[in-house]
Design goal:
Blueprint (H helix, E strand, L loop, with lengths): L4 H5 L14 H12 L10 E7 L3 H9 L2 H7 L4 E8 L1 E2 L2 E2 L3 H18 L3 E5 L4 H8 L5 E10 L9 H8 L29
Antiparallel strand pairs: 1-2, 2-6, 3-4, 5-6
């Protein structure tokens, strides 16, 4: 991959070291990175619920995950609920999910830079999160983020071990970037793309 190796090193493992700790000081660095993300009109819609393994926020967040996700996420050092504030005192805010996505990507790349790993989880109950934490109506939980230190793949359930070890593949630019009209690749095929 041409470009920033930090981006290429980012991946979403499920194998977390269940004994590793991520300190509040480190989480402050990650959340500061999220705070500086671009957003539509500087609306800054990203909101987070922060739980450390062993505390009540972590336990309630873990309980909102689907059972298959709970099996591996329980070993993460931190669970974050990332939510989008969809309105403020001025009324509805545009493109809130986009702003939240940028904030999460900043957080994830900062984690990579610090030698940590993350995994974004869509398999959770937004209603359970709303109820467990008393989210206001204008705040929508979008994703849960597991943060920690890479662990031993052999400690995962067997079906997840294979997924963890498979090669990372990305669609080539010929399938995702077009020019002139839809479907006409903007770049020639690159045999090294993966």
């Amino acid at each position: 991959m041409d470009g920033n190796s930090l981006i290429a090193r980012r991946w979403s493992p499920r194998a977390f070291d269940g004994t590793a700790e991520v300190t509040p000081a480190t989480m402050r660095v990650l959340l500061e990175a999220a705070r500086w993300a671009a957003s539509h009109g500087n609306t800054q819609p990203a909101r987070f619920l922060l739980g450390y393994r062993g505390d009540d926020t972590f336990a309630r967040t873990l309980a909102a995950l689907r059972p298959k996700n709970q099996a591996w996420a329980k070993r993460a050092s931190v669970l974050l609920v990332a939510a989008a504030a969809e309105s403020d005192e001025r009324g509805p805010m545009p493109n809130t999910e986009f702003g939240l996505g940028l904030a999460v990507q900043n957080l994830v790349l900062q984690a990579v830079d610090l030698g940590l790993v993350t995994h974004q989880v869509g398999g959770f109950s937004p209603d359970a999160v709303r109820e467990a934490f008393g989210l206001p109506d204008h705040v929508r939980p979008v994703v849960v983020i597991a943060v920690g230190v890479l662990g031993d793949v052999s400690e995962l359930p067997e079906d997840l071990q294979a997924r963890e070890r498979r090669q990372r593949v990305r669609k080539p630019l010929t399938e995702t970037v077009f020019t002139g009209q839809w479907g006409q690749p903007a770049f020639p095929a690159d045999p090294t793309e993966a």
